[in-house]
Amino acid sequence: MDRSERQNDPIESQRLALEGHQAQMWTALPGIVTGFNPVAMTVSVQPAVLGSVRDENGKSNSVQMPLLVDVPVVFVCGGGFSLTYPIKVGDEVLVVFASRCIDGWWQGGQPTPPPSGRMHDLSDGMAIIGPRSQATKLDPPVDTENVQLRTDDGQATLTMKPDYTIEAKNPQAGCRIGSDGIIKFSGAGISFAAKDGGATQAAVSGRMTVDELTSGHVDFNTHYHECPHGGNTSGPKS
């Protein structure tokens, strides 16, 4: 038996009653994804904080909390646009619990009376993907100067800089749209292909300088013409 249960202290009794009531008010919990439904846009989440129960002797024991199922996922969206990404088993989340039952809103997306009187309940959570424990922190770390969309390992990035420069790269290629208006590509090559395999076209307005140019299987670096009176022209000159 707990020591407080042996004393007739009304203040202590009130404190324990308030603590017991507060313990049933869920606000937010970190968790780990155990499943993802991309059609319903919901996840199953195992809370990452253990619960506590007392045995018949008053001893407190840690227990795993129940699995949270059909938890709506919060994706960044608005104005007809959505940013989506895959959610994998093992991803860390923060589940935020609504103060009232969300079932009516969840089904119809409109203001409705709550079908249940429950408050701050584990059944009314919404999952925010992305909080990271120290065990899953990004390496390399966050870019402190620029906005960046990246893979966790940093091998593929899309970076926007304060001077309006935009850079995209992966281990094999890169593209830089500079604030000076110059666009630079780096990689094994650039390929143009029309939709459905048809013919394609490209237009360049202004001057273009290339080291080598092949058109219709003709190498312009070594190309020559046949003269109408016999013989050939010499090759191209710089």
Automatic annotation (TrEMBL):
Top-rank taxon, per record: Bacteria
All residue ranges annotated as the Phage protein Gp138 N-terminal domain in the record: 29-130
Gene3D superfamilies: Gp5 N-terminal domain (2.40.50.230)
InterPro entries according to UniProt: Gp138_N, Vgr_OB-fold_dom_sf
Pfam families named among the record's database cross-references: Gp138_N
Name of the molecule in the record: Phage protein Gp138 N-terminal domain-containing protein
Record lineage: Bacteria, Pseudomonadati, Thermodesulfobacteriota, Desulfovibrionia, Desulfovibrionales
